[in-house]
Specification:
The chain is mainly α. It contains one helix and no strands. The longest helix is centred in the middle third of the chain and has 86 residues.
């Protein structure tokens, strides 16, 4: 092959390589942006789930404390009543 043809072949090769590289980079960029968005949405959903669990645990803790206080009052009252009955006997 003569030098002029070789130079033309090299230029064509470089142009094709550059065009393909640019096309692949654009596709990868679009793909990574999609993945980034999916990860972001997943993280937001996970955060919302954790916040929901936290709210439920807070509510459960309040209910347990209220029930425990009520139960303690009932036991104290019961103890007082038994003490009074025992004194009468």
């Amino acid at each position: 092959m003569d030098p002029q043809s070789q130079e033309l072949a090299r230029e064509i090769s470089e142009a094709v390589t550059a065009a393909l590289t640019e096309a692949v980079e654009k596709r990868l960029q679009l793909h990574f942006e999609g993945v980034r968005e999916q990860v972001k949405l997943g993280a937001e959903g996970y955060g919302a789930t954790l916040e929901s669990i936290d709210r439920r645990l807070d509510r459960l803790e309040r209910e347990w404390k209220r029930n425990f206080r009520l139960h303690s009052k009932v036991l104290k009252n019961h103890s007082e009543r038994l003490g009074a009955i025992e004194k009468r006997s």
